[in-house]
Amino acid sequence: MSQDQGRYDFYIGLALAITSSLFIGGSFILKKKGLLRLAKKGSTRAGQGGHAYLKEWLWWAGLLSMGTGEVANFAAYAFAPATLVTPLGALSVLVSAILSSYFLNEKLNLHGKIGCLLCILGSTVMVIHSPKEEEIETLNEMAHKLVNPGFMVFATAVVIMSLMLIFVVGPRHGQTNILVYILICSVIGALSVSCVKGLGIAIKELFAGKPILNHPLAWFLLLSLIMCISTQINYLNRALDIFNTSLVTPIYYVFFTTSVLTCSAILFKEWQHMSAADIIGSFSGFLTIIVGIFLLHAFKDVSFAISNLPLSLRKNDHSVNGSLTNIYESYNHDEENHLGDSEPHSENISSR
User: Where do the TM regions start and end (predicted)?
Assistant: First the structure.
């Protein structure tokens, strides 16, 4: 029964994670459309600290879509390990890239399509080899995990890094460096996922009839989650307003996934009981995703499609044949010059 229940929870978490990626991928497009409309009206942009997007219905539609995706994601964490749910966020990269090519005129070339495919393949490999986290069924067990020295050091480092990025690095380089605002969202996202996991356990206990509302950890996790999500929304809006959507989405995915995997490994000890094959498979899947993200990002401005491939090959063949012809003609020319120079010499020899 426990194995059947575990398999049932696995498929529920998988379906919820895929649904979450669809809604979150679409939310980026709606938010970007709303921010572009505000820019045309001359309102103070979000990248400059403005909050005029709160009056734009398209932005609210994007926020609603993201909220729906996050709720599905929230539920997925309650049924499945974080290292299963988080890598499936690569599907949101695919959805965002496809929709942005149709609705935002952000062209997706052949390299980008291959990158999206690699993201899907890498996510599939990570799901197959996903580590199994330690079973945590009560908030008391979660509280014991949170006060672990390793996680306390990690959480302290995340808070210090976030404050440095927000108050020191952000005002100086946030407008020009795409990584600043994305790093803020990503490192805080690691803590928000931990809060989501804890609240998911609390909701399960609440439905089981336990007095969870009297547990101080439940309220602490709820307040921490609200603070983390508010900060993420603020700085993600700034990144979307300043930089291209097809760049923000994949880069955010890479850093966010790395942060969550690191946090889950420290908090839930997911890697202790994994076989060598699963460890190699997990790292290989994640590296495949990173390669896909690199193709999607590095060659974004290169105009190259499948229809250009035969023409490119013909050009390469022509250049190779042309170079061989030039070498042959140069060789013949050198031979003729050599023969022309040797004729007078032979005549001198015969006269002698």
Answer: 12-30, 57-79, 85-104, 111-130, 150-171, 178-203, 215-235, 247-267, 279-299
- Nearest-angstrom CA–CA distance, 205 and 236: 33
Residues 6+ apart with CB under 8 A from 185: 231, 232, 235, 236, 239, 252, 256
Query: What kind and span of H or E run contains 103?
Result: helix 90-103
pLDDT digits 0-9 by tens, 127-141: 788 765 556 778 888
Q: Which domain holds residue 322?
A: 307-352
| Of the candidates 192, 197, 202, the residue with the CA atom closest to the CA atom of residue 224 | 192
How many domains does the structure of the chain reveal? 2
Over residues 279-310, the pLDDT tens digits come to: 888 888 888 887 887 787 667 666 666 666 66
- Residue 41 domain-assigned? yes
3-class DSSP assignment, residue 3:
helix
Among residues 80, 104, 123, the one where a domain terminates is: 80
> Quick one: which H or E segment has residue 315?
helix 308-351
Give φ, ψ of 147 to 5 degrees. Answer: -95, 10
Q: How far apart (Å, rounded) are the C-alpha atoms in residues 95 and 27?
A: 10
Close Cβ partners of 340 (under 8 Å, ≥ 6 residues apart): none
- Name residues whose C-beta falls within 8 Å of residue 267's C-beta, 6 or more positions apart in sequence: 145, 146, 148, 151, 154, 194
